[in-house]
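We emphasize that the prediction below concerns an isolated chain of 198 residues; any contacts that depend on oligomerization or on bound cofactors are therefore not represented. The input was used exactly as deposited, without trimming of termini.
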Amino acid sequence: MDLKATLEQDNIKLPDNFFYNIQKYKEHLFKWNKIHNMTGAKDEKTINEFIYDAVFPVSFLPQVENLMDIGTGAGFPGMILALGLPQTQVTLVEPLTKRASFLQFIKADLGLDNVTVVKKRVEDMEPKVFDMITSRAVTDTKMLLKLSENFRNENSKLLFYKGEKVYDEVNDSIANTTMKHKIIETNNRHYLLLGEDL
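Result of the prediction step, given as a token string:
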């Protein structure tokens, strides 16, 4: 996949320095991966797919002041969203030391003023309301709604990166809530956007 060409073809508006920063991010990720096993994605093609997957929602997300990503891992989607949304303050929540250290290193190396790395489980964080909460491959929707309770209000949006099971999860998890939802599909991904005022 030619990442730049694909994103441009999809008309996804990204900052001028996005591809420079992504290149640096990838170089660091490959180095760290050799020692620390940061992510299962080991080759450039897979990493490019992960990056595309992470940043695609820039094409449909509302403008938000701040965002929290639960379980960022090696940076998907939170760090990539931070590179794509420089005006948004992004809090990356990652309990594993090696991954949190990597995220902190990327923040410092790329001079990302809009990134905060929190080395904790989300359950151990002080409550704070975010405009947007994201998560990819952490747990099911029902559990994510529970984990995010202390970090949202009626105006917050939630964006969960899901597979095809999303339809079953939605019926199960939001039946007794006031939340509305949209499912945005791409080739390999279902994005679940939740909120009370969608």
